[in-house]
Amino acid sequence: MTITRSLQLERIIRRTDRLIERGTRLSASFTRWRLIIFLIGLVCTVALYKLDRYNSGNLSLALFLAIFIAVAAYHNKVESQIHRLRQWKQIKQIHLARIALNWAAIPSRAGEAPKLHPYATDLDLFGPHSLTHLLDTTVSDHGRARLQRWLLEQPAAPADWYARQSLVKELAPRSLFRDRLALDAKLTGDQEINGKRLAAVTEHSITLPYLDTILIVQGLLAFTTISLALATMFGLLPGYWMFSFAAYVLIYFMTDQGEELLEHAVGLHL
């Protein structure tokens, strides 16, 4: 079973390497196309303006800008997928290292055995080349604390043992599910998830009065501003877009949106 699992992981890693290589080539192609589109758009737009064909110049500017933004969006998506694949490969490599007991390739977590614990030191539960070093795949401080508690504290009731065994048996065959959770956690950042801070933020409710109405009004104003700005760009209307834009900005600052949300978001990452 161990050999089969190792071969399976090696095949996944090789397939991931091929996908990363293909994505890297595609990303380089997108980079070249972005440069080509920018240069062609710049030359065409400047040439039309030099010929006093302002409407055609505005149309050229809008067209090449839309194409450039679309290509840039796809490029960013490709780069994001490459990053996900690299993180996915790292997860699989760590699994392979655990099977082979390649301790140098297994991430170590901080933790010390209690000095007065009856068996933690004798069984090497903590430290380098320990059981925790081998088993710990947690991504948060709460998860790591629970794992350590399970290793250090033996429940007296048989029902607690059965509950733990049931949880382990349920998760054991779901390797893809576990790895996807680990991938999502790694994509949030390199730091360990702070469970206390996350719980404190979620317990404090965030309320923005009349949020639905404000979003509808601002959406209509944004659409109106863009439409009027395009009409002004093509010489169809005067600069009426400034009035709708001013109304949008006024509503934004009067409702004081986003400040509390920003504070909570910053609090999660500090």
Description:
By secondary structure, this protein is mostly helical. 73% of the residues lie in helices and 0% in strands. It is built from 10 helices and no strands. It has helices at 2-50, 54-100, 131-135, 141-152, 158-171, 175-187, 195-203, 211-233, 241-255, 259-269. Helix 1 (2-50) runs antiparallel to helix 2 (54-100) and helix 2 packs across helix 6.
SSE order, as H and E? HHHHHHHHHH
Mean of residue pLDDT values: 85
The fraction of residues assigned to DSSP E strands is under 5%
Structural class: mainly alpha
Write a concise keyword list for the protein shown above.
mainly alpha; 270 residues; 0% strand; 73% helix; elongated
Task: Give the topology.
Blueprint: H1 2-50, H2 54-100, H3 131-135, H4 141-152, H5 158-171, H6 175-187, H7 195-203, H8 211-233, H9 241-255, H10 259-269
Question: How would you summarize this macromolecular structure in one to three sentences?
Answer:
Helices cover 73% and strands 0% of the residues.
